[in-house]
Fold:
Amino acid sequence: MDGGSPAILPATLTRAPGSAPRPAPELSVVVPTYNERANVPILAERLAHALAGCDWEVLFVDDNSPDGTAAVARAIGATDSRVRCMRRIGRRGLAGACLEGMLASQARYVAVMDADLQHDEKLLVAMLNRLRSGDCDLAVASRYLGGGSAEGLSKQRARASRFANMLVRRLLGIDLSDPMSGHFMIRRDAFEPLAPAISSQGFKILLDILATKPGSLRVVELPSSFHQRRHGESKLDSKVALDFAALLTAKLTNDAVSARFLLFCLVGLSGLAVHLLALSVATQLAALAFGAAQTLATVTAITWNFVLNNMFTYRDQRLTGWRFVTGLIRFQVICAIGAVSNVGIATWVYDYDSKWWLAGLAGALIGTVWNFVVSAAFVWRQR
Ligand code: GDD
Ligand code: MN
Structure:
């Protein structure tokens, strides 16, 4: 799991001439960044202070921010090897960035914290000590424990956060004061086995970790203050509510219904409404022949679905520019084949058992699964 013991490495690798082997640091602090150029140097400085005397590194995982965050992190790393930067191209998303950063670490312990100075870096040493003591696998900074605070949240965000906490407690049975925290530290060997089940989509990586094998981790919570953001702005918008609902569903169904598939189906349902609307406009207002109107409505609905899926379902790998155009063409072709198989399956079921609704449902389901699986492979190619 740790990438191979020295015994299985070729001899040339075990004895690099002139340099003694340098063990991995004890702690990696993974910091996801998107347009945090002004915050990176301040955070690096603060970490150096807070973790003086510890064996640590910080790994900024940047999604190719247009403001040049990665270059700033690399410039610091050039003279301080404790500061590393991982630049992801063509991908977006907080959870995915954290996941990849955590997996890129060799350290015994891995922490996650935001770049924007909203989390308290002074808590890292306390978290580290708790993990070192061996009485827990995961330490979580809680805004809602006595002594903690959430001053950095707007009124509306605070209300949403409390509501989400309540849902998590009721539905997933996770009994933590702040399962939505973005600041935590975990033993890497406790994390690695869970990693394949963690969704790279969305923003709630801690919740995902907690919900993946409930009860398998020994968790402690430490009170912490969530400060106001100083520079830059929050990237979490109202779309995260959708991500949250999808993650809840995925975990409630034991990952049988993936968050992506759920979003894909929701988009498909909205496409149905668009289809009917377009059809009524085309037949009533434009007075097109039915066949032409139905074709037009179908193309419109598929285009609608493509745009929405690109915006929500695959927002971490959104296609832009030329790739948007070729993606749309591919999606049209895939969905056309999906429609043909939909009709084929439905007719076959209908011949077998003449319940119209059963046949219709079976056809629609197979068509949707086809569209989902094939477009995942040929339109939005990454996971
Ligand atoms: N690599 C990468 N990619 N980083 C991202 C992305 C992304 O798409 N989106 C956001 N980030 C980084 C930001 O740069 C910041 O360092 C951190 O993730 C948190 O993002 P914010 O945009 O500051 O989010 P927030 O302050 O609204 O949300 C925080 O608080 C929530 C609790 O209310 C986060 O810590 C959440 O994880 C937390 O749940
Ligand atoms: Mn923030």
Notes: The domain at 21-252 is CATH 3.90.550.10 (Spore Coat Polysaccharide Biosynthesis Protein SpsA; Chain A). The longest strand covers residues 27-33. The pocket of guanosine-5'-diphosphate-alpha-D-mannose (ligand 1) is lined by residues 32-34, 36, 61-63, 92-94, 97, 114-116, 118, 153, 161, 180, 182, 203, 234-236 (CB under 6 Å). The two ends are 22 Å apart (CA to CA).
